[in-house]
Design goal:
By secondary structure, the chain is an alpha/beta fold. Among the domains are: 207 residues, Rossmann fold; 97 residues, no CATH class. The strands form 4 sheets. The chain has a 5-stranded antiparallel β-sheet with strand order 5-4-1-2-15. A 5-stranded parallel β-sheet has the order 6-12-13-3-14, with helices on both faces. The longest helix is centred in the middle third of the chain and has 36 residues. The radius of gyration is 29 Å and the shape is elongated.
Length: 457
């Protein structure tokens, strides 16, 4: 898990009440991790989907679900309670503000338009000059404008100060909290399957809604290659830029003949660091010269050559500035090698390159030639080990799908081991997924099915 996870606002629990008017589902975290055991038909997929919608502030997608309310609690703040009406009211207020900004219409006049939209047929609305003027000002389809006004009327009355009411609504307060205090990027992995082609979207069949959704994250091998290339380029470009700067600084060092600071001498204590920067210098320094420099180090004579020591120390300092990227690439290769079969991902630390080779024959492979399961691993791990965000809130639905038993036992362990994983929620019905270091975090998903009379309340 991320070393700084303790500094993040944590999710404590998430509940969906009255889902489909027949069940309540609760996700109660154990610190930053929650592994939940649930059967098919329990509503787990819908609950995870709704959780990622809430954490992303993507409340519009909640409108396709039938539920009574959502309760979400984060550390350090009171719980937020959302109802479907909260979102509709928020949309109404947004419309009210936009109409006021674009037309100058006061709320009372907007309510009059809403009443017209609710009670008059389309052809009568099109004949009303004031109504058509307002519709054109919104720059949305006429039918959408009418539909929005019809819903607006359901939550408004002339005596309601909707702007003041909305500013303190649960949805607005939650949206503001997420923007200001929730610092994790949501990585949502529904029904974990590898997509092999460069598709724009991976469509996931939601088991409870029986409909297609397009919110599944996907990683084509193009995405993986780009992440690797971005990381290795960051190292290469930085080193080349630093090499030029250091060459210029050498002029000052030669001219002033200033003594080396203790900090600079301290960087020369590690032979492997010297070997690394000499390797990255490339052809600018011959192999013979590199051997001579290392011999000086081995004989304890390097510090007597002040200018050479300055140059090497400066190169090591430049390397240290991208060392975390270097380590991330090493960790990525290591975790992927736990899943590759008769293959090995190699990170060449001297040249800052990543490639996959067959262990028999040493043939270099294209990532597109890997198996479907191997691509799954490389894709997800590339986000968690090489991604742009500092911390991820990972939501995993059935991580065991399409994975061998051995892989099931370690997939969540490796996800949690990433320095970028701040929180992890997973739902499974395979015991192998949590028969490991995460066993203490495993619990049964809280699902309560209501009686018919309860569902009618």
């Amino acid at each position: 898990m991320a070393d700084s996870a303790g500094s993040f606002t944590k999710l404590e629990y998430f509940r969906v009440e009255g889902l489909h008017k027949r069940q309540d589902i609760g996700i109660i975290m154990s610190g930053s991790v929650g592994i939940f055991i649930a059967d098919n038909g329990s509503g787990k997929t819908t609950a995870l989907y709704m959780l990622q919608c809430v954490l992303r502030g993507d409340f519009v997608k909640l409108t396709k679900f039938d539920y009574e309310r959502i309760v979400v609690k984060f550390s350090g703040v009171d719980q937020f309670v959302l109802t479907p009406e909260d979102y509709e009211q928020s949309r109404s207020v947004t419309l009210l503000r936009r109409l006021n900004e674009r037309t100058g219409l006061p709320p009372s006049q907007v309510l009059r338009l809403a009443a017209m939209a609710k009670h008059q047929p389309y052809h009568r609305l099109r004949e009303d000059a004031a109504f058509m003027s307002a519709a054109r000002s919104m720059r949305i389809p006429f039918s959408a404008f009418v539909d929005r006004l019809q819903k607006f009327d359901q939550f408004s009355s002339p005596d309601t100060d909707m702007l003041s009411l909305a500013d303190n609504s649960p949805l607005v307060r939650l949206r503001q909290f997420l923007s200001e205090s929730f610092c994790q990027s949501v990585l949502y992995l529904p029904t974990y399957r590898r997509i092999e082609q460069d598709l724009e979207e991976l469509l996931d069949l939601d088991e409870d809604e029986n409909e297609m959704t397009s919110d599944a994250i996907h990683f084509g091998m193009k995405d993986v290659n780009e992440r690797i290339r971005s990381a290795t380029n960051q190292i290469g470009v930085h080193f080349i830029s630093s090499y030029g700067q250091i060459s210029g600084q050498m002029l000052g060092q030669l001219a002033e003949n200033t003594p080396l600071a203790e900090e600079m001498l301290g960087r020369l204590a590690n032979r492997s660091s010297i070997e690394l920067v000499l390797g990255r210098v490339g052809e600018n320094v011959t192999d013979t010269q590199k051997s001579l420099i290392l011999k000086l180090y081995d004989n304890g004579e390097l510090s007597t050559n002040r200018h050479l020591s300055f140059f090497l120390s400066s190169l090591i300092e430049a390397y240290e500035q991208v060392q975390e990227v270097d380590r991330a690439l090493q960790r990525y290769a290591k975790v992927c090698n736990g899943y590759l079969i008769n293959k090995e991902m190699r990170y060449d630390i001297l040249n800052a390159t990543v490639a996959v080779y067959e262990t028999i024959g040493n043939t270099k492979l294209d990532l597109d030639d890997l198996s479907s399961g191997e691509k799954q691993i490389l894709g997800v791990m590339s986000e968690l080990y090489l991604g742009d965000h500092d911390s991820y809130f990972v939501i995993f639905d059935e991580p065991e799908l399409s994975l061998s038993m051995d892989w099931q036992k370690k997939i969540l362990v490796d996800v949690a081991a990433s320095h970028k994983t701040g929180s992890l929620v997973a739902v499974t019905h395979s015991p192998f997924v949590f028969e490991n270091e995460l066993d203490a975090f495993a619990k049964v998903l809280e699902v309560k099915f209501r009686s018919p009379t309860e569902g009618q309340r």
